[in-house]
Design a protein that fits this description.
The chain is α/β, with parallel strands linked by helices. The chain starts with a strand and ends with a helix. 34% of the residues are buried. It is globular. The strands form two sheets. It has a six-stranded mixed sheet with strand order 6-7-8-3-9-10. A four-stranded antiparallel sheet has the order 2-1-4-5, covered by helices on one side. The longest helix is centred in the C-terminal third of the chain and has 29 residues. Strand 9 and strand 10 form a beta hairpin. 38% of the residues lie in helices and 23% in strands.
Length: 270
C-alpha cells in the first residue's frame, strides 16, 4: 500500500545547522493497517509524515503509494489520496470561514472547488448528520466561523474533514498533543471510531505511550532519523507503557555511550 525505500532528508545541508532528519528509512504499510509511531523529540517522526505527505522532497530513496512512484509528486496531488491532521488544531481549516464552508471544501477534495453548488440543502443535511456523530452540538452551528470554536471542537472537525472522502492513507501528527486531557480523550475515541468504521490505513505519531499501547496493530520507534524498533501485531499485544519507556531509556543510554566512545577516540587519535 505504502512503501518507503531508504528515504533520507537533510535540512540546512552543508551548514553548521545541518540536521539529518531522516536516514535511509524503509517502511511498508499494509492496506487497512494502523501503525503508531513514537520517538523522542527530533527523532524524525514528523519529518517522516511530511515526507509522505509531500511537504518536502526527500534527498534520496523512493516513496511508493499503491505501487506508483510518488517521490516527486507535489503535495496537492498526494492530498487527493492522503489525509493529514496536524498537532495544532488551528492548522488545516480556514478560521474566518464557517463550519459548513470548511467541510464543503473537504467534501470536494480532488474535485473542482467551489462553494455554491456544494452548499445545497442536501449537502447541509449531510453535514449536520455527520457532525451530530461528534456529540459536540456542532450540527446546529453550521454558520459559525470555525475560528470561534474551542481547540477540541476544531480538531474534531479537522479530523472529520481529513477523513470525509475516506482517504487511502490517513496521517496523524500528534493530533491530540495541544489539547486538554478531556478533549484529547474525545479526539482519540473519535479517531478510533473513524479508522475502524472506514478501515483506513493509518500512520499516527503520538507522544503518549498510553495511546501507543492502546491503539493500532503495530508500533514503530524512531531515533535520530531511523527506525530503531518495529513491533508487529502479536508483539504489540504484550507491550506495556513501562516497556516502551524502558526502550526509550535504552536508546538514550546507547546514544550516550556511542558519543563517549567517539569523543575518546577523537582525543586519542586525532
Amino acid at each position: 500500500m505504502l512503501k518507503l525505500d531508504n528515504i533520507s532528508k537533510i535540512f540546512n545541508k552543508g551548514t553548521i545547522n545541518e540536521v539529518k532528519a531522516l536516514q535511509e528509512v524503509s517502511l511498508h504499510l499494509e492496506k487497512g493497517s494502523f501503525t503508531v509511531m513514537v520517538g523522542t523529540n527530533g527523532s524524525g517522526k514528523s519529518s517522516l509524515l511530511n515526507a509522505i505527505a509531500g511537504s518536502f522532497f526527500v534527498e534520496s530513496g523512493k516513496i511508493f503509494h499503491n505501487g506508483k512512484d510518488i517521490t516527486r509528486a507535489p503535495e496537492h496531488k498526494r492530498a487527493k489520496e492522503i489525509g493529514i491532521v496536524f498537532q495544532n488544531p488551528f492548522t488545516g481549516t480556514a478560521p474566518d470561514m464557517t463550519i459548513a464552508e470548511n467541510i464543503s471544501l473537504a467534501s470536494k477534495r480532488g474535485k473542482r472547488r467551489g462553494l455554491g453548488m456544494a452548499l445545497r440543502q442536501k449537502k447541509l443535511d449531510e453535514f449536520r448528520e455527520r457532525l451530530k456523530g461528534l456529540n459536540m452540538g456542532l450540527e446546529d452551528r453550521l454558520n459559525n466561523p470555525i475560528g470561534k470554536l474551542s481547540g477540541g471542537q476544531r480538531q474534531a472537525i479537522t479530523l472529520l474533514m481529513a477523513t470525509w472522502m475516506k482517504p487511502q492513507l490517513l496521517l496523524l501528527d500528534e493530533h491530540t498533543a495541544a489539547l486538554d486531557p478531556k478533549s484529547a480523550i474525545k479526539i482519540i475515541k473519535l479517531t478510533d471510531e473513524i479508522v475502524r468504521k472506514d478501515k483506513l490505513t493509518t500512520l499516527m505519531v503520538t507522544h503518549s505511550m498510553q495511546q501507543a499501547v492502546n491503539m493500532g496493530n503495530r508500533i514503530i520507534m524512531m531515533h535520530n532519523g531511523r527506525i530503531v524498533y518495529d513491533f508487529n501485531e502479536n508483539e504489540k499485544k504484550h507491550l506495556k507503557v513501562n516497556d516502551l519507556l524502558s526502550l526509550f531509556d535504552e536508546v538514550r543510554r546507547k546514544e550516550q555511550i556511542d558519543k563517549s566512545v567517539a569523543e575518546m577516540l577523537e582525543r586519542n587519535y586525532v
